[in-house]
Amino acid sequence: MREQITRALHSLDEQCAFCCRHTAGCENLRLEVNGVGEIRLPISGRQARELRKVARPARFGIRDRTVLDREVRDTWEIARSRVKFDQRRWRQTLDPQLESIRCELGLPEDTRLEARFHKLLVYEPGQFFRAHQDSEKGEDMIGTLSAVLPSSYRGGTEVIEHRGEKVNYRRTRGSGRTLTFIAFYADCHHEIKPITDGYRIVLVYDLLARKLPTDQRADHRAPGDVAEVNALAAALARYFAAPTSEHAHAPPVFAEKLIYLLDHDYTQSSLSWHRLKGVDATRVAALRAVAEHEDYEIHLALADIHESWDCADDSPSWDYRGHAYYRDEDEDEDDEDSDDADGDLAEHLELIELLESEVQIRHLIEPSGKKSGISSLDVFDSELCHTKATDELEPFRMEHEPFMGNYGNTVDRWYHRAAVVLWPRGRAFAIRSKGDPSWAMMELARRLKNSGVQDAREAARSLRPFWPRAVHQAKGKRLLGRTMKVASALGDRELAAALLEPFTLEDFVASSVPSLAPLLDGYGVEWFQQVCVKWDPDTRWYGADHRRAWFERLPELCIALRGQESAAMTRLAQWLLAREWDCARAAASGALTDPHHPRVREVLSVIAAWMMYVVEGCTHAGNARVHDDIMAFILADHTSLPAEALIAALRGCRARLAPKQLRTLALGEVHECAVSTLSAALSKPGRSVDDWSIEPPMTCTCALCKTLGRFLAAPDQRRLDWPLASEGRRHVHEQIDGYDLPVSHSTRRSGRPYTLMLAKQDALFARELQRRKQRERDLKWLHRQRASFV
C-alpha cells in the first residue's frame, strides 16, 4: 500500500528545480562602492583591481565559528555597508527575476521571495571556494542568490549538488554584457571552481520566503493534476483500510498514521507550510488537498532518525600464521584524531544491511501554522514512506563499531528530516492521546460535558492499550489531578482504576487532593487504597532511596488531606502513614540482616530519614499509634539502628523545621538515645597500633569464608599466603571487594595451584580514626541542638 502512495507522490513531480539560472540586462543596476566610486558595467580589469584593493579576505562558517582558511575559500569580499544601490531602479530588474526563480524552484504561490543583500565578492585568477553548504541566517532564509556582474573572465564554474543530482553553471557567451542570476536552496552543496583568467564579481543575496498577506493569496498552494491527486487519495484510502502487521507474529491492525519524509532539509525554525521547497511544496499541497477532502488530520513535523547498519568487512592485516589481525585501539600511535578518523572511516564503509532503525516525530505544526500540543510521536516502520531514501542522504553524525570477533563492524547514522504526518480524523483521539495524555483528559472532560457519559466511556476505553506508556512518558504534575476528575465522572470503577493504575506514588502530590474527593465519594476509600497499592514501587531495602521523592512530600500531602475536613480524607491519610511505616520497617529489617554491607549505613540513614517524615506526617494527620510504633522501633535494643543513621535523620529534621515545629515531633528520646550511644562508643579506647583485627562481615558460611574470617579476626596476623584454585580465589576476591575491606589481594602465578596473597592495609587505622572524629563532631552538634529536640 505504501508503494502505491509513493508512486502517486512521485507522479506529482512538476520538475521543480533545486537551482536555476537566469540572465537580464544590466541597465537598471546603479552601483557604488566606498573607496572605488561608481561601478561601470561591464566591469573592466582596472576597476576590478580597484575593487580588489578595498576588499578583505573572505571568511566562512564552521558550526558556530567563522574562520579564514584559504585552502577552503580563497576569494575577496566587500561588506554590504560599503555597497550602495539605486534601489528603485534595481527593483525593476530584481523583482521579476525573483518571481521567475520562485516558480522554477517550485515555491508555493502564497509565498513571496525577497532578496537581502549580503556582500560583494571578487574572485581573481586562481581563487575558488570548495564545496560547502550555506548556513540559514534566520528562519525565513531558504536559499542563496548570486548576481554575477558582467565582466571578462574564464573558469569559475559554479557546481551545485542536491541529493546526488549535480548542475554545472559555466560562464556563458553573453556574461560579459549581461547579469547572470544563479539561485539555489540552502540545503544544496555548491562550489566555485578556480578562476583561470580575469575577474568574477558577484553580488550575494540571502533568499527569504515571506508569506503573502491574506488578501493577496489563496488558502494554500493548489495541487497539480486532478487525476494524480485522485490517485493519491485512493492510495491513502486503501492504506488506512487494510490491516497490517509490524512483526511476523503480531496480530494485524489497521495503520494508525502515515509519515511521508520530505526531500529537502529544514530546521525547526525554518519549517513552515509557506516555506516548503521544490517538489516538497507540490507533494505536500496534494496531501493537504486530500486531507481536507477526505477528513484527515495533517501536520508538518521534524523526524529524528537513527539507523544501525551492518557494513562490509574492514581490511584486516594478517599475522604470520595467516590469521586475520585487527588493530586494537590502544595500539594506535597517535590518538589525537581518533574521533575524526573514525568518522572518516564511517563515511567510506560499504553499507550491507539495515539492522534496525528508530524514528521519532516531534515539533508538529498544524495547517494553521500553530504548533500542535503533541510533543512527540513514536513511529513504526510500516507507517513510513518516502521518495528519497534516508541512506541516500548525508547524516549529521556517524559512529563506527569495528569488528570485535563475534560482534561489531556496524555503523550508526543519525539524521534530521522533515515529514508530513497524516491520520484519519476518526483516529485522532487515540493518536493525540499517545503524544499528549493531558490533552486526552481535557478532551474526555469536554465529551463528558457535551456528548454524555457513554461517549466519554467509549473514548476512555480506547486509551487502555497504550495508556500506561503514555503516562510514563508524560511530564507535568497536573496530569494525575485531571485524570482523577475524569475517572470520578465516568462512573465506572473498573475503567477509573485502569486510568489511574499507571501513575506512581511520586505523582500523588498535594495539588491532586482537590480532585480526590469525588473519587472517594463515588468509589470509596477502600477502592482508592487498592489503587495506591498498585502505585507502590519496589520496597526492598536497597531501593529505599528511590522512594525519597514520595516520602519527602508525605507531610505536605497529609496537611492537604486533613485540610479537606473530610472523614474519608483523614482516614486515607492515616492509612497512607500506616502503610508507609510498614514499608520503612520492612526496609530497615532487611538492611539489618547484612549489617556489614558497605552500603548499609548509607541506606539506613535514608530509612531513618524516611521514618522521620512519617513521624512528621503523623503529627499532621493525627496518627498517634504509628508515631508511637516508630519511636518504639528506633529505641528498641534489638533494632540496632546505627547512631550515624539516627544523627543523619535528626540533622535532616533540624535543617527543614524550626525548633517550635521540631518539638511537636516528640523526638527527645531519639536525641538522648543518639547521645548515649555516641558517648559510650567514644568512651572506649581507640585501636592500638599493633591491633590488625577486622570484624568478619561475611554472611557466607563456606569453608573459604571461615578461613578468611579467622585471618581477618586475628589481631597479630597481617599477611596470608593462600594456595587456591581459580574458583576459590574468585570467591575470596568477591568477598573482600563486596564488603570494601581494607585488605589487598593479588595472585602469585607460580606453582599449582597459584597463591592468593592477602595483606591488611594501613587504611584500617585511617578509617577508624576518621570515624572517631566524625562521632566527636556529631556529639558536639547533639549537645548544641538539645533545646530544639527536648
Structure description:
The chain has 790 residues and is of the alpha+beta class. Among the domains are: 202 residues, Jelly Rolls (Sandwich), CATH 2.60.120; 171 residues, no CATH class; 61 residues, Ribosomal Protein S8, Chain: A, domain 1. It is built from 26 helices and 33 strands. The strands form nine sheets. It has a seven-stranded antiparallel β-sheet. Strands 22, 23, 26, 27, 28, 29 and 30 form a seven-stranded mixed β-sheet that branches. It has a five-stranded antiparallel β-sheet with strand order 7-11-17-14-15, with no helix packed on it. Strand 32 and strand 33 form a beta hairpin. The protein is extended, with a radius of gyration of 37 Å. About 4% of the residues have low confidence.
Q: What's the pLDDT, averaged over the residues?
A: 86
What would the CATH topology of the domain at 11-212 be?
Jelly Rolls
Give the spatial strand order of the biggest sheet: 1-16-12-19-10-8-4
Largest sheet: 7 strands, antiparallel
Question: Share of helix among residues?
Answer: 40-55%
End-to-end distance, in Å?
78 Å
Helix count, per DSSP? 26
Q: State the CATH architecture of the domain at 11-212.
A: Sandwich
Per DSSP E runs of 2 or more residues, the count of β-strands stands at 33
Radius of gyration: 37 Å
The fraction of residues in strands falls at 15-25%
**Which regions contain 5 or more consecutive residues with pLDDT less than 50?**
217-222, 315-343
Structural class label: alpha+beta
**What spatial form do the alpha-carbon principal axes imply?**
extended
The CATH class of the domain at 11-212 is Mainly Beta
